[in-house]
Amino acid sequence: MIGGPDRNRARREALALLKRCGIEKPEEIDLELIAWHAFKALVQERPLNHCNARVV
Fold it and tell me: Concatenated DSSP letters for 12-26?
């Protein structure tokens, strides 16, 4: 797609991030670890009232 997302690059980068985090199986996914490795971000958990959300 011209001017659109480069899905192959995104996939390669996502797989590289999983490898750096030592994640090999879905049950090993650790959001806080990924956030730190990718963005040096801390994850804060709080209740969401009157909100809908999903992870895509």
Answer: HHHHHHHHHTT--SG
The model carries a pTM of 0.66
Domain boundaries, the chain: 1-56
pLDDT (tens digit per residue) in 1-56: 566 778 899 999 999 999 999 999 999 999 999 999 999 999 988 887 888 776 65
Q: Which residue has the tokens 């956030």?
A: 35
Report the amino acid identity of residue 1.
M
Q: Torsion over CA of 24, 28, 33 and 39, rounded to 10 degrees?
A: 50
C-alpha neighbours within 13 Å on the C-beta side of residue 48: 7
Residues 31/23, Cβ–Cβ less than 8 Å: no
